[in-house]
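Q: what does this look like with zinc ion bound?
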Amino acid sequence: MSEHRSPAGSTSVPVTGSQQPSAGPEPLPAAGPPRPPARPRRATRQGATVLAALRASPSFRSAQEIHGQLRAEGERIGLTTVYRHLQRLADEGTVDVLRQPEGEVQYRYCRSDEHHHHIVCRVCGRSAETECPELVGWAERLAESLGYSDVSHAVEVFGVCAGCRAARR
Ligand SMILES: [Zn+2]
Ligand SMILES: [Zn+2]
Ligand SMILES: [Zn+2]
């Protein structure tokens, strides 16, 4: 590792005539009470409810759809809360996040922890998971040829599933 970035632009700091007097160090918070646990119980239970709704569906679904289903089942949960749990589950890698070509974000519970891709039906949202041996090699070669390292990739494939195709006839 020999390359070092120099700071962009000049390093001289403009000195203004009236410098603010330092207010001194930030007052440290006194040894207060220990932080409360990050998540209250209720949120955990609602998180489990959101996860259960996802597990019951083979299709990618939007936060609005999941919220609507939970409300219809009598769950008292707000859309913002649904979003928050979906975001956390996505961060944990428990659910996959899919961005439709039209921009809608959808979520689906995934049984695979491994890196994988989806082929998604544009009509009904049903999806299948697939590995990507060809893509890995292609992405690595592309990145190397352009001088990039630490390569990752994200690809989703869309189409019309056999069931939807049959229903159209
Ligand atoms: Zn998946
Ligand atoms: Zn379909
Ligand atoms: Zn891949």
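Residues 115, 117, 132, 135, 153 surround zinc ion (ligand 3) (CB under 6 Å). The helical segments are 41-55, 63-72, 79-92, 133-145, 162-168.
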